[in-house]
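A favour, since you know our structure tokens better than I do. Would you make up a two-line entry for one protein for me to read? Write everything out right here, beneath this request.
=====
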Amino acid sequence: MRLLGTMRFNDKRHLEIGGCDTVELAKKYGTPLYVIDEALFRQNCQNYYRSFTEEYGTEVIYASKTLSNLAICTIVEQEGLGLDVVSGGELFTAAKARFPMERVYFHGNNKSPDELRLALDYKVGRIVVDNLYELELLNAIAGEKDTKASIILRLSPGVEAHTHEYIKTGQIDSKFGLAIENGMAMSAVMRSLELSNILLKGIHCHIGSQIFELASYAHAAEVMMNFVQKIFQETGYLAEELNLGGGLGIYYSEGDYPRSVKEYADILMSAVRAKAAEFDIPAPKVIVEPGRSISGPSGTTLYRIGAIKDIPGIRKYVSVDGGMSDNPRPALYKSKYEACLANRVNEEPIEQVSIAGKCCESGDMLIWDIKLPVITTGDILAISCTGAYNYSMSMNYNRLPRPAMVLVCEGKADLIVKREDYADIIRNDVMPQRLCNSRIKLASSSR
């Protein structure tokens, strides 16, 4: 497993993160356990701030869908980034963390009327409008509140990035955005300029996630700048803001070759500025929305190994006390990860095993065919790069409680998400009185 951030092997031959022994973390907080390397998370934020904001004046907003809680929102604010939210729940989390609402961008392809009202009540900086239905709905709600909603229109630029089918978003055939090619985008621009309670600030696109080919970003920027010019020519409106989304790929396992944030910034901004010069128009304020590339590498998940099943000549299955309930990405996207034995990190990997989760699904496999030291029940397995889309996509399938999360830094571990217990699992269950009455009658009749 590649060591990232503050990871190191200590003198006990244990994996250490943020100065904390992961074996001791597992003992104290239990497993599965999400461990967030605060220093690395902050460093990733700082890389974006330096490469985009300081170098080019670009606004960087963190995509909180990848990992969101009160502590994470607070760190993001402290590092000078804005916040991208996609639901009322993420917006409420930001508000409870006292995140400055003027630095919040509210995304989503089907925001409810209540969510839009909440966004207006909180006075979020921008609402990213995804479709014509939402545009009209937002105008009506803003009118009821006697206010104007500052919006950015989400467009589909027709750019298909090379990534997994389920995380491509920039092509025309997508549930997200208004396509430029078929005229929907221009219709939305014109309608936005007509509506009395809408203030159009700019346009947005997002071409996908886990992208390594930076040329895709440059092409998207050129397409969007061409459209900025077309809007100006046809309506006289010059977009002030150009939001180019996120999606920069990270290292998960062998074969991943991530590009640096600086390379990403340089190619994106060069494309925007070149087009602005070509059209002799002011370059719009550029906004980017990194998520995975900030939170992903900073997270590690610890598991305790239980059952081991060796099928001679076929495969050796090693089961852990978590699985798709805390990390559904391998089941959804065939995502690959690296791992090590946190309690025996220096031992030579000599046997090939497959890491199985405990859910009642054949597809609940975290890692297929990985070489590790000889494993015994009770060992602690650490899977790296689990900071993005693990906790945020976790679930209670099989009524499994969600894991706890700790933030580690300089030898100190702070609990930032409590572990769910069985009482949490049934907290929202409601027993109808008629079933209770039926139970009483059945008990009486059996006497």
The longest helix spans residues 214-235. The CA atoms of residues 155 and 177 lie 4 Å apart. The first strand starts at residue 8 and ends at 9.
